[in-house]
Amino acid sequence: MPAPQxxxxxxxxxxxxxxxxxxxxIGKFGAYWLTGSVAILSDAAESLIHVVAVAFAAFSxxxxxxxxxxxxxxGYERIAFFSAGFEGGMIIVAALWIxxxxxxxxxxxxxxxxxxxxxxxxxxxxxxxxxxxxxxLRTGRRTGSLILxxxxxxxxxxxxxxxxxxxxLVLVLLTNWKPFDPILAIAVATNILWSGGQLVxxxxxxxxxxxxxxRISEFEAKAKAVATELGIxxxxxxxxxxxxxxxxxxxxxxxxxxxxxxxHHLATEFELRLAKELPPKSEVMTHxxxxxxxxxxxxxxxxxxx
Length: 306
Prior knowledge:
- This protein is mostly helical and about 300 residues long.
- The chain has helices at about 5-35, 40-65, 80-110, 115-145, 145-175, 180-205, 215-230, 260-275, 295, and strands at about 235-240, 245-255, 285-290.
- It is built from nine helices and three strands.
- The two termini are about 30 Å apart.
């Protein structure tokens, strides 16, 4: 189970995200009702998607923190990748809807009113979301929660979307050229498509057990340092990122003159030391092998097996 403080921080951050998301949704649709701006409508639609995604993320966070059981011996942490993929997919849907709505409004004729007040409302929402997004991102990274990280990136995306909308509205106010409104909406939507795609990519890599090369390099450096200290060689590394912790297995090699008791003692020491260098609650599992003939026992290593 996570430390109580981490547990509280995660739920507090998610509660803030959901509460602020609902307030932003109300404020932005209010601004659209005042102005009729398609850029503000697109921003409000993104906020609606955000509230739905946060609700799913809150459930995912609760499930990911449930302890392992006979039904799920490795726990439920990999729901984090489903959550990231769902949130990324919702962002993509919102972006495509924004583009379609902007084109439709443009072709139908643009009618914009009380733009100054609407711009101020969206600017206030942008600043609040900016602060919330960075808080979620920091909390997610500090507690090792992919769910909070993905949610923080979504909130920041919402914030940058709003800033782009504000820029478009200011241009309309300065030039009185109304097409700036849908043009900026389409540009912002195109940008958030990339953000949603990145979240979906993270989800697919996690569900397919394709770990981040940077994390593999980080693990290798730590494993080699511990192995060197204890005078141990290893091979056949298996690495899994659950979204909150790492689960790794590897084979340790011992010469024939080392007794089973001593080898087991060194293996246990290796596991404990390495686990301390990894994210909290990570698991390190080892398998003991004789160093002299492991090549004969594992000829497939010649074909590129790690």
